Amino acid sequence: MSTHINATKGKIAESILLPGDPLRAEFIAHNYLEEPVLYNDVRNMLGYTGRYKGVPVSVQGTGMGMPSIGIYTWELMTEYGVENFIRVGTAGSFNENIKNGDIVLAVAASTDSNYSHAFNIPNSYAPCASWKLLSKAHDIGREMNLSMTAGNVVSCDVFYETEPDWWKKWAKMNVLAVEMEAAALYMNAAYHRKNALAMMCITDHFITGKKSTAEERVKNNDEMIRFALELATR
After folding, report:
1. Using an 8 Å Cβ cutoff, are 133 and 16 in contact?
2. pTM over cut 0.90
3. Mean pLDDT of the residues in the chain
4. Which H or E run includes 48?
5. Residue 89 neighbours by CB under 8 Å, 6+ apart
6. Are 32 and 19 in contact (CB under 8 A)?
7. Can you give the pLDDT at residue 215?
8. Which of 102, 157, 204, 222 is catalytic?
9. Which one, of 105, 101, 129, 124, lies nearest residue 185 by Cα?
10. Catalytic residue status for 41
11. pLDDT, tens digit (0-9, with 9 covering 90-100), for 46-74
């Protein structure tokens, strides 16, 4: 067992999905996996292992923000031998051509966080996705006929920014969307030589102001979850 995960060795699969919300982890486990087994309930940050199309796969809630996902993925990498990490989350679009419901694959994750200080590297370090997962995701996404885009995202520490136009400096540099976890995941994966990919469904649009309805979120998350599970198990 690790500090924040009370699973025994061998109970977590080699490939894992990482939603921020632990209740979404529970939802994925019970609605998409065969014979899911709860392996973690420390701090109610739920984790399950089951099978998808007969292949073992796990799903672990990570909480919100880089410090939280940093803790869980570090322990999964160092204590449980997980190799492939797929973040399934939501994001806000900065790009007029990326609509609500579209999926963004984070090729790289810019950040305003100081998370990189843990590795004694400059903040200018650019963490990126694993080519192994990114290239496979591209092929699977096209096969599934998904509306997806790949590019740079920004992982921010602050959800409620005080400056209304803060996002425009990122959009000017063709950053596609904002979320709160990918950069830490990518840094941990780089340090430990693991594979990681963050995929996010767009639920908010900074240009149009449109927000997805509850019904739209359910439908679009279903597509992304199935996409991620195909990626995790092929």
Report:
1. no
2. yes
3. 96
4. strand 47-52
5. 18, 19, 20, 179, 181, 198, 199, 200, 201
6. no
7. 85
8. 204
9. 129
10. no
11. 999 999 999 999 999 999 999 999 999 99
